[in-house]
Amino acid sequence: MPELPEVEHAARTLRAWLSGRTIQRARAVDTRIFRGGSLGDFERSLPGRTLARVDRRGKYLLLTFEGGVGVMSHLGMTGKWVRRVAGAPSRRRTVPKHSRAHLVLDDGSALHYVDPRLFGQIVVVRAHPVAELAVIQALGPDALVDGVEPGRLHAALARSARPIKVALLDQSVLAGIGNIYATEALFDAGIDPSRPSRSLTRGEVARLAEAIRGVLTLSLGRIEAGEIAYLSEGRGVPNRFVIYDRAGSPCPRCGKVLRKTVLGGRTTAFCPGCQR
DNA sequence: ACGGATGTTCGCGC
DNA sequence: CGCGCGAACATCCG
Fold this sequence. Notes:
single chain, 7 helices
């Protein structure tokens, strides 16, 4: 579930895996994950290089290598980076299922990009810094790095009549929020997700901004603490969210039965009792 | 067994 | 231009 906290964790993990290492080999499978001439650039431009930095903007990972080659990696719905260590006494397969690309490092490890549904993207950029890609420039302030400034958010929300939940998913309004954290933050702030975004008062936007900060930092903390095995193989992990995917259960705040609706084509859980 | 849903983004048509 | 909808794909659940 790669939204901001999960992508931030992926960024930190990649930073640790790649720091001080040299890429020996790069291979990719020809899928639509690679746009333009990126597949060839991925295989040819990366070997011999070392990492300069890993950044995250919203849900986008930005890798910059010494010598001026950048890689943009977006995880889509089901993408993740996993590491395989040579000779590890593991019963896991050497090449993970649905591996679409991998980097072999000088310590013998291999970093695989795994993405069953192929909704992710990898773009290799040589002409300019990777952060100058149009998709990155189009992003609004990052919900974690830049913070959620209530006045600015209020101004952005005041321009549209679409539901507040849909506006929160718009990455040009605020970068990093996806379906789960939009649902959670609106519940936390006690705001009905179907309200027109421009109907929110300054006070409500301030509450929402605090709720967004809260749900993102809480989740990131839990991921970093190892409480959540996002990068591991395990599936069927229990739902750790407060109301996401809990329609039909009692509201943990007021006890009314949680309901669900569809906004912007996305399922949205909400409490009819305490979200106004 | 099969229909319907699933974390994201983009492009099309109105 | 704003918006709503479907498509891209594999897997899981009931």
